[in-house]
What does this fold into?
Amino acid sequence: MKPPAPSSAPVKPAKGQESVWDYPRPPRLESSHKHIEIICAGVKIVDSSRAFRVLETSHPPVFYIPPGDIESSVLELASGSSFCEWKGAAGYYKLRIGTHVVPEVAWFYPEPSQSFAAIKDHVAFYAARVALLEGDGCFVNGERVVPQPGNFYGGWITSDIVGPFKGETGTWGW
It folds into this structure.
């Protein structure tokens, strides 16, 4: 992977922070006991302390939530798929809460590669797509996350993660 241009050199992490430039490639999967909550249309749809994080160079962490910690009645399979060279073929969910419908709000791996078998059917949400009403969002240990820039990426930026991040202007070639 190409490093950032000198004008966007990696930020040096302070004590208690992680730099996405210290994350590996290929990505690493690790369990996380951080408290994950997602609120959409005023409804708490995720409450978990059993997520996994995927950490990849230049990307903020992506959290994969176990299906049992998701209000499953709000998710419906969506059309479309994508392929990750590390994890395999992904499927998508749309979200329906009352009159609110959010297409491709989340993705999952029904048959992940062996290295990522632990996240089989776990669900990762695009933070930018769940914020429909005031107070909605994705939260890690009570902190509202900032969505990873760009429409394709699903990482969650919190105050303990520093970049620059893939998806920002000028990063397409990284």
